[in-house]
Design brief:
This protein is of the alpha/beta class and 298 residues long. It has 10 helices and 11 strands. The strands form 2 sheets. The protein has an 8-stranded parallel barrel, surrounded by 4 helices. Strand 6, helix 6 and strand 7 form a beta-alpha-beta unit. The protein is globular.
């Protein structure tokens, strides 16, 4: 092979590798942009949208912490989103990443750590960490308790994959009498089908980067189910029109400026997941957590 051709191929290979790395870094930034975002108070168009605080008020306090959840409810968000994963000993805890490395002073995969081990960890990264330097990793129940106590509703993204029966998840939502108000989202459609068998009234959304026809079909089959898609990659095409005609709820993530909010509003979105766009008026309903789980989970 000629030397010049070898050089060209090596250069092309290097460019491809750089492109892949850059692409991963961009996706990582987009997924964890809350650390670099600033809260925009009182956005007018939020009066016509169901606003979801992404990992709590993550532009102000570290993501997925008790403080971030409290602040989101205080800011008037109707919904407060979080991510849950399963510990080694079978407990649901709140964490976006598969490991605790990025957000805490510990290391290791959540699925390989016990609840007791995770309880010892301290959150060391995120927005306003200098003000919120005494945060730990919440459990699912602690998250639900804080959100509902603040008058908002949970949006729960299931990050864990496995042969779970999800009865404990549904149990927690029943305990707070919010199975018809909470929203569960997941990339794994089969897991949503499993949960649907346990709870017919629970709202669900299928996560994806774009609105594929298979997602639309699955959402119809599951029932009371919408789509949760990435605003950057979706255009107002025939697929979006089909979604609107079928009356399926559409949620876009992660919407962090007013121009994008206006775009998805015109596309027919009914939800917007955001790090930064606070409601201009409170969207919360008046409700109060009720009695014990034993009374409601029969």
């Amino acid at each position: 092979m000629p030397k010049a051709l070898i050089i060209v191929l090596l250069v092309l290979a290097s460019l491809i590798i750089v492109g892949i790395i850059a692409g991963k870094k961009i996706m990582e930034y987009m997924e964890n942009a809350s650390e670099y975002a600033k809260l925009k108070e009182g956005v007018e168009l939020t009066k016509d949208m169901n606003m979801i605080a992404h990992r709590g008020l993550s532009a102000v306090a570290p993501e997925n912490t008790i403080s971030a959840f409290k602040l989101a409810a205080k800011a008037g968000f109707k919904y407060v989103e979080t991510d849950i994963r399963r510990t080694k000993d079978g407990y649901w805890v709140v964490m976006h990443d598969a490991t605790v490395d990025r957000m805490t002073d510990g290391t290791g995969a959540i699925e390989e750590l016990t609840l007791e081990e995770i309880r010892k960890l301290k959150i060391t990264r995120g927005s306003g960490i200098e003000k919120y330097d005494n945060e730990g990793v919440p459990t699912l129940k602690e998250y639900v308790d804080v959100v509902t106590s603040g008058g908002s509703y949970p949006v729960i993204e299931i990050k864990a994959k496995g042969t779970f029966d999800f009865k404990d998840l549904v149990y927690t939502l029943k305990e707070y009498n919010i199975t018809d108000k909470a929203v569960v989202i997941d990339y794994d459609i089969d897991q949503l089908r499993t949960i649907r068998k346990l709870c017919p009234e629970l709202q669900m959304q299928i996560l994806g980067h774009v609105a594929k026809n298979k997602f639309i079909k699955a959402a119809e089959e599951i029932g009371n189910c919408g789509l949760d898609i990435m605003h950057n990659l979706q255009t107002d095409n025939r697929t979006m029109k089909r979604i609107r005609e079928k009356g399926l709820p559409i949620n876009f993530w992660t919407v962090d400026n007013e121009k994008t909010l206006e775009k998805i509003y015109k596309m027919g979105a009914s939800y917007a997941t955001t790090n930064t766009l606070a409601p201009v008026v409170s969207q919360k309903d008046d409700f109060a957590p009720i009695a014990s789980a034993d009374e409601v989970f029969q």
